[in-house]
Amino acid sequence: MAFHIDTDDLIYAGQIGIDSGQAMIGDPCYLDEWDTNKNEEWNIEGKVGKYSYHGASATTIAKNYGELGHANSVVFSTGYGDGVYPVYVYLNDEKRVSAVIIDFLGEIMDEPLQLVSVEDEEQ
């Protein structure tokens, strides 16, 4: 079964600011396990897949994307570096988020859509 999303069905959710050329998706409940590597010397050797800033950097440098920790998050290169990128969601028939799209190229929409809450959509 192919999954196709028409851009007319996307809802602008907001923006994500990127300052390290990489982004990450994960459950916020695991953030207390995140190692910021603050006050540590820069060292990414052997850190691919580690749930840390050095691990995220090592993973995106080595493979452009990958899993961190034991399914704590997924990290990926932003493709074209730092910036502020629009984020869109797709809601299924039950009004549940079933896809998230970060537009690193700015090619999904000519102009970002207005931020619309689910409550606004139901009215």
Adjacency order of strands in the biggest sheet: 1-5-6
How much β-strand is present in the residues? 25-35%
Name the average pLDDT.
88
Main beta sheet strand tally, sense and closure = 3 strands, antiparallel
Put simply, the count of helices is 2
Query: What fraction, in percent, of the residue positions are helical?
Result: 10-25%
Uncertain segments: none
- Give the ordered list of helices and strands: EEHEEEEH
Categorize the overall geometry: globular
Task: Calculate Rg over CA atoms.
Answer: 17 Å
Distance between the termini: 32 Å
* Class by SSE composition: alpha+beta
Q: Write down the domain tally.
A: 2
How many β-strand stretches? 6
Question: Can you walk through the features of this model?
Answer:
This protein is α+β, with helices and mostly antiparallel strands. The chain folds into two domains: 1-20 and 83-123, no CATH class; 22-35 and 43-77, no CATH class. The chain is built from two helices and six strands; from the N terminus they run ββαββββα. The chain has helices at residues 53-63, 118-122; strands at 10-18, 22-26, 65-68, 73-77, 83-91, 97-102. Strands 1-5-6 form a three-stranded antiparallel beta sheet, with no helix packed on it. Strands 2-4-3 form a three-stranded antiparallel beta sheet, with helices on one face. The longest helix is centred in the middle third of the chain and has 11 residues, at 53-63. The radius of gyration is 17 Å and the shape is globular. The relative contact order is 0.24.
